[in-house]
Amino acid sequence: MKRIDTMTILGIVIGLALVVVGISTQGTLKAFWDPSGLMITLGGSFGALLVSFRFEDIKVVFRVTKQAFVRQDEDITVINERFVNLARKARKEGLLYLETELDNIQDPFTRNGLQMVIDGFEPDMIRHILNTEIDAMEARHELGQNLYRTWGMLTPAFGMLGTLIGLVMMLAYMEDSTKIGPGMAIALLTTFYGVLMAYLIFIPLANKLSIYSAQEVRRKEMIVDALLALQQGINPRLLQEQLKVYLAPAEREALEESSEYSGKVKEVTVDV
């Protein structure tokens, strides 16, 4: 299920809008536009980024960036309900019956794990395979976070470099008043660009990706525990309580208050 993270978009838009409004009330936006300063700050920091990371990593990370704006995952309460339902069916019909449910599961991680359960893999092997996949996912996510944090560190540094370049231009052409203005613009605007991009875009994106990565790890760890409990033929009611530890208090309340969930709980209680 795709969900647009409006807070990420809204935060960037509000931040930029307030900066623009603040500038407009005191002067003209044209005075804050300098292609040379932007090229030094953004172009220079991106060049340093190419030195710091492999180009293959940078290409992958930019594709992952969309996760900060558009999420495609299942709500953790939906996962809870699914596994309680699967446990109920497994107790009635047996694990092999769950093969008919594979086509209804869109998440590859869950589908792969359930297939291993149906195929009779050892629990330790299932946990090892799935945990290895989680570790690999975390490594990919950390790469994206490190890239944006590094970029956020580099842009103010290149902003300062632009400031030094502007000061040198001013000092070198003190006798020519027509060149003092461009030098002053580069000296000040490169620092402005560097700070704005670092603290409004790059570092916040790294933080958002870190939060989403932690949520994804929690979701997958819950799936691993649910799959292994399913393999053991756990009582659906017990599985329900076991998986609730992964839910935040607000999520638990929402789950318990849902009429669909309440009906399932009653049905499970009768079956066992």
What does this structure look like?
This protein is mainly alpha-helical. It is built from 10 helices and 2 strands, in the order E-H-H-H-E-H-H-H-H-H-H-H. The protein has helices at residues 6-26, 35-52, 55-64, 76-93, 108-118, 123-172, 180-231, 236-243, 249-257, 259-271; strands spanning 2-4, 70-72. The chain has a two-stranded antiparallel ribbon. Helix 3 (55-64) crosses helix 6, helix 4 (76-93) runs parallel beside helix 10 (259-271) and helix 5 runs parallel beside helix 7 (180-231).
Give descriptors for this structure:
disordered C terminus, mainly alpha, 2 strands, 272 residues, elongated, 10 helices, two-stranded antiparallel sheet
Separation of termini? 32 Å
Class derived from helix and strand content: mainly alpha
How many structurally independent domains?
1
Secondary-structure element series: EHHHEHHHHHHH
What is the count of β-strands?
2
The neighbouring-strand order within the major sheet is 1-2
Q: Determine the fraction of residues in helical runs and give it as a percent range.
A: over 70%
Number of discrete helical segments: 10
Low-confidence stretches: 259-272
Task: Specify the overall morphology.
Answer: elongated
Query: Can you give the mean pLDDT?
Result: 84
Q: Beta-strand percentage?
A: under 5%
Biggest sheet character:
2 strands, antiparallel
Rg, Å, rounded: 27 Å
Kindly summarize this structure in a few lines.
The chain has one domain.
